[in-house]
Specification:
A three-stranded mixed β-sheet has the order 1-4-5. Strands 2-3 form a two-stranded parallel sheet. The longest helix has about 50 residues. It is built from 15 helices and five strands. The protein has one domain. α5 packs across α10 and α9 packs antiparallel against α10. With about 350 residues, it is mainly alpha-helical.
Length: about 350
C-alpha cells in the first residue's frame, strides 16, 4: 500500500523525504522491477568525499564572487551585475545542496543534514524545515489531480477552467503569465511568502521560518555595517532575482511539458508520476553542473535517497530511462505556452483562443 504523506504527519517528513513513497515499482514486473530496484539501491546514500567536495566547489566560489562584487561596486555596476549572474548560478547549486539535505541524502547524519540545510537555506532565503515538509508533499502527490496544492505549480484542468468564473479565469491567466510565474512570483515567494509562517505550519516549521528570518536579519546588519545597506541590496537582490528565476524555470519544465502525467485516485501511480511526469532535462554540461544534475528529475522522483552527484551515473545504468520524457533547452521553451491539463487527451495544452 502506498504511503500518503500529509500535513498531519508531523514527525514523518524526514523519513518520507529520504524514502519517497513506497510502491514505486508497482507498474514494473519481473526483470524490469528487479533491475530497477538494484540500480536505485546501489546509488542511494551519500559519499562523504563527494559531498564535502561539492560544498567546497560551491560555497567557496560563491563567497569569493561576493567579495569581487563588493569591489566592483566602486568600478562599474554593470560589472557587478555580470558577476551577479555567475553568482546566481552558484546559488542555484547551493539550493540543490539544501534540496538533498531535505531528503537526507547529502550526508549520512540527519542532524548534520539539518544544520547544512539550515545554513544553505539562509543563503537561499528559504526556511529549511518548512520547505522540506512542502517538498515531501510534492513528491507524494506529483501528478495526482486529486491532491494538488502544496509544493507544486497551480495547474487547472480544461474543464475546471471552462467552468470557472470570469474573475478566477483572469486570476489564473495572470498567474500563468511568464512575468508573474518566472519573475515576480519567485521573488514574492523568497522575499515575502517564506518570511511569514502559514496557519497550516507545524511548530517545527514556524520555528524554521523565525530562525531563518533572524539569521537573514543578522546577515543584513553585518553587511550593512561593512558595505552599507544600499551596497548590500545592490548585490543581494540581483543574485536572488536571477537565481529564483532560473530555479523556477527548472522546477516548471520538470513537470510541465506536453505529455506529462496526471491521474486521479487509484489510477495514480508513484512510479509513472516519476518516469512519465518528471522530465529528463538534458542540459549542456556546464548548466548541468550549475543545476546540480536536477535535470535527472525522473530518477530523483523515483528515489530521493540518491544524492545529486550520483544521478547521472544512475541514469546511465538502466535502459528503462532511455524512454523517459526528454527535454532540451530548445524544446523546453514550448512548455511556457502550456497552461491547462486536458484530461480527455492526457496532455497539457495552451489557453483556448478567444
Amino acid at each position: 500500500m502506498e504511503q500518503r504523506c500529509s500535513r498531519d504527519d508531523k514527525d514523518a517528513d524526514e523519513s518520507c523525504a529520504r524514502q519517497g513513497v513506497p510502491g514505486a515499482e508497482k507498474t514494473l514486473t519481473g526483470a524490469g522491477r528487479s533491475s530497477l530496484r538494484v540500480a536505485l539501491t546501489g546509488r542511494q546514500g551519500s559519499v562523504l568525499r563527494s559531498s564535502v567536495w561539492q560544498l567546497l566547489n560551491t560555497l567557496v566560489p560563491y563567497v569569493l564572487l561576493w567579495g569581487l562584487m563588493i569591489l566592483t561596486l566602486r568600478i562599474s555596476y554593470l560589472l557587478t551585475l555580470a558577476l551577479a549572474m555567475i553568482a546566481s548560478g552558484f546559488l542555484v547549486r547551493i539550493f540543490i545542496i539544501l534540496h538533498d539535505c531535505a531528503h537526507g541524502s547529502f550526508l549520512k547524519s540527519q542532524r548534520v543534514n539539518s544544520v547544512v540545510g539550515f545554513i544553505t537555506g539562509v543563503l537561499c532565503f528559504t526556511p529549511f524545515a518548512r520547505w522540506r515538509h512542502d517538498h515531501v508533499l510534492h513528491h507524494a502527490t506529483a501528478g495526482d489531480l486529486d491532491r494538488r496544492g502544496t509544493g507544486d505549480i497551480w495547474t487547472m484542468t480544461v474543464q475546471e477552467y471552462e467552468s470557472a468564473s470570469r474573475l478566477r479565469r483572469l486570476g489564473y491567466r495572470v498567474f500563468r503569465s511568464p512575468l508573474v510565474l518566472f519573475v515576480l512570483g519567485p521573488l514574492y515567494v523568497f522575499l515575502i511568502e517564506y518570511r511569514i509562517p502559514s496557519s497550516n505550519d507545524s511548530a517545527r516549521e514556524r520555528k524554521s521560518v523565525h530562525q531563518t528570518n533572524v539569521a537573514l536579519l543578522a546577515v543584513a546588519v553585518v553587511m550593512t555595517q561593512l558595505i552599507g545597506l544600499k551596497g548590500y541590496l545592490l548585490i543581494q537582490v540581483p543574485i536572488l532575482m536571477f537565481s529564483s528565476m532560473a530555479g523556477m524555470w527548472l522546477f516548471y519544465v520538470q513537470h510541465q511539458f506536453e505529455d506529462a502525467y496526471w491521474e486521479r485516485g487509484d489510477d495514480w501511480s508513484f512510479e509513472l508520476a516519476a518516469l512519465r511526469g518528471s522530465s529528463y532535462y538534458r542540459l549542456p554540461a556546464w548548466l548541468q553542473w550549475f543545476s546540480g544534475n536536477i535535470g535527472f528529475h525522473h530518477i530523483h522522483h523515483l528515489s530521493p535517497a540518491i544524492p545529486n552527484y550520483r544521478l547521472a551515473a544512475c541514469h546511465a545504468d538502466l535502459a528503462v530511462f532511455e524512454d523517459v520524457p526528454t527535454l532540451t533547452l530548445r524544446s523546453s521553451l514550448k512548455s511556457a505556452s502550456l497552461k491547462l491539463w486536458d484530461e480527455a487527451n492526457k496532455r497539457l495544452v495552451p489557453f483556448p483562443r478567444g
